[in-house]
Amino acid sequence: MIVQTNTNRIANTLSHSEGLILQALMEQLQDTNRAKVNMSYLTADVATSRSVAVGLLNKLEAAGLIESKSLGRQGIVIRVINREALEEVAKAVNNLWAQE
What is the CATH classification number for the domain harbouring 86? Predict the structure, then answer.
């Protein structure tokens, strides 16, 4: 129950654009716990800025769900620390959108 409460809190802090980026990120992390992500391509898919994506990554890192390491122009390596909680956040975001 604590995980659900925390994931709902995290989901409530995300903007709509961050939620879209989270969905795109979850697609890239679908079968793996580590991925190299090019933020320009990721944000182009959802028509938002890279700064919004960086804000999302900072929130997910602060929550202890992921770790990220910048590779400069090559992208960012993202490692999932807590997949169950990350998936719960993504579901909570979808549930919030369904209620709107």
Answer: 1.10.10.10
